[in-house]
Amino acid sequence: MPVHQPSHYDHVVLVSVDTLRSDAMSAHPKPLWPHTYRDVRPVRTTVLDELASRGAYFPNMISAAPYTAASHGAIFTGQYPLHNGLHEFYNGSLRAPSVFTYGRRDGRRTVMKVDFPIILGPELGFTRDIDTYLIESDDAFIDAVTSEDRTLALAHFGGVHLPYGFHNLTLGGAAYREKVAELEAGLPDELPFVDRLVETYRDPEDADLLVRYKRATTYLHGQGAYDRLFQLYLEGVEHFLATRLSGFLDRLTDRVAAAGKRMLLVLFADHGEEFDEQTNGHFNSMSEGVLRVPLIIVGDGVQPGTHEHRIRTVDIAPTVLDLAGISAPATGVFDGRSLASVVRGKDTLDGDAPALAESYNAELNDFIAFQERQLSGRTPGPLRHFLVGHAAYLGDRRVVRMARRYSEAFQRATPFDTVRVERFDADGVPRPAPDDDGADLLALLDDYRTALRAPQDVTVTDEMRSQLRSLGYSV
Question: How far apart are CA 372 and CA 386, in angstroms?
């Protein structure tokens, strides 16, 4: 990556809308969901549509993982999960430098506000190189950014994640209580078991509301009410945008402008949401609706336009650093590539980028016990994970290889080896390609997974020692 002179952007602000699939936006040029869900109406996404019209809009970005931790790790580092140290559902820690590392070296104050502190927190290495770390406080984030001369900052929002539109009782208020009561109306008294896993800290009433919401949606999924669940999700997107994100962006923009500063705004999602027989949400899914997410970049010098060719979430870090003029190594660090010249309107995307995605998970009961130990202050110990499935993209094709299949209510995953090759049609919809064995795509997956292999011991021979001594080494 070339080294630039200091940028005219005083503030570089990343906005992560957790669980926002790309085609939830009305501005999406080729939405997938109308091909799957028949009895669903679109919703208003005005704030995102207006941002897309004013900036560089990429509607076809593939996430490296269908869950928050690994996906954000790839976004922040520009490296795929097997390369940056954080590939499992909840394990490991980021070991690669991030955009915040480079921002700090550039003399910027680094700020991070998250709605999921249990996931995007110190346990998994997300707070390294962060000067100011905030939880669920939108206005404190705006204060932290605008009180500094130069920042690199992230505002993460969990409002599109289940419970769709509300996040928690503090932010959701009476509307959240009313939605839970509405969902429970007419349902049987005995509802299915659901986990009590959480991404943020909740008081007893808040935790109870979340469990009740999960029970209702899990029951609907068991009944095959996929259209109703997807409508519930879209309505949650609309509610979150109208009641929280729109006001946040207005306040942030006004405060930055009032201070006479310039801002680069980069909005993206980590994964989407889907409902079918083997997917209830996102965590175990290689569905295109889960993996395809949006990217919008707005700021002075950004050429407005829609770029439909495929990019990857690992492209975000090198692009942001390039646009902001923040120095980073030119080669050997990023799996992604800078799209700065495209964003500035000096270049166009040259076809669809190759992409990779993987999903790892743990048995539900193991994860529940792990989190109970964690939240009680005890040492949680190890959490065994396994590969659920992965996908590779080349040109207009992709392969999905699944290693596990989930039982009823998604309580247990059993081994299940299946491969499907798909080809994207003119509308961007993946269609079965039964005559394609996907050998080159599977090879891409196998090559990527070599990163998991332990290094092999090498036997040092007398000849090798002699050669090393001739080079001046003492061996």
Answer: 21
